[in-house]
């Protein structure tokens, strides 16, 4: 203690003769100087960096008509001595009871919080009611919560005609009337009840329709004819399409979607095409065939012509008939309309909105020289 007595003596002497000791020096060993420095340090009290943690939180919610009632169970761990306040849930909850009964829950900064003393692990259960908010589309409850290491919610008594969703959560189990969700790190518990979407009525299957059909027919004097027809068929799915074409007519070529195709013969007067689903909502079918009817009379007579019929609705048909050059058409009759601009050897016909019936026409002809005056 020699150095301490020396220091006291010097201090007393400095107080008495302070002006004369301004230039005085004191010699100390390193050990003595280190002891003085350590003694002058103020040591802060030891404090744990984490005061508390909610280890687990589980919400068991029972859905009612306009509210949700339930039980919230917490496991809380504190890490330091002294009084602590641990926030549990927002004040949107209506607390009905707290267990254990000697647990202290306080309202602080808009949260219900657990008041504890010292380091401990404690389990707390809150029985609560949560009012729901009604909108045009849904019924929802929500409340702020404190994040927990693990958190989950179980919802019971879900109406059969409703769907439940939980924000920022993953559904892990669903049975009739009960669903379990694993909550994320969200600080909000929001449960929404929506009406079960009503199933849409079955869509109307749009029928296949022939938007446009064309016929280019040529007839020669011995009654033989050739016809090239095109149909533009609108359909949404693969289609079996039938067409009236008698066995007496000889097929020359046929195409479906610009690709060669061979129709099937169903019976003596019907052929059948199998059309795949169209890429652009429409399939073009082309067909060429020949046939033979009554030969032309030497002077005058009539010619009966018929096109193939189909059960599909034909919105528009254009029919061109090229007659032999040595005859002229003087009259016509049939279930088709005559377009303006017809000439003696070039007949143009049309038909709108036909279905099932075959376009037909009777052309009355004569040789031009029979009309000349003597």
Give a concise summary.
It is built from two helices and 28 strands. It has helices spanning 2-16, 30-40; strands spanning 52-63, 67-78, 83-90, 94-99, 104-108, 111-117, 121-131, 133-134, 138-144, 150-156, 162-166, 169-175, 178-183, 188-195, 209-219, 224-234, 239-244, 250-256, 259-260, 264-267, 270-275, 282-292, 300-306, 313-322, 328-334, 337-338, 346-355, 360-366.
Structure description:
The protein has helices at residues 2-16, 30-40, and strands at residues 52-63, 67-78, 83-90, 94-99, 104-108, 111-117, 121-131, 133-134, 138-144, 150-156, 162-166, 169-175, 178-183, 188-195, 209-219, 224-234, 239-244, 250-256, 259-260, 264-267, 270-275, 282-292, 300-306, 313-322, 328-334, 337-338, 346-355, 360-366. By secondary structure, it is mainly beta. The longest helix is centred in the first third of the chain and has 15 residues, at 2-16. It has two helices and 28 strands. Residues 1-10 have low confidence and may be disordered. The strands form six sheets. An eight-stranded mixed sheet has the order 19-18-22-16-15-24-27-26, with no helix packed on it. It has a seven-stranded mixed sheet with strand order 4-7-2-1-10-13-12, with no helix packed on it. A four-stranded antiparallel sheet has the order 8-9-14-11, with no helix packed on it. The chain folds into two domains: 52-195, tricorn interacting facor f3 domain (Immunoglobulin-like, Sandwich), CATH 2.60.40; 209-371, tricorn interacting facor f3 domain (Immunoglobulin-like), CATH 2.60.40. 7% of the residues lie in helices and 55% in strands. The protein is rod-shaped.
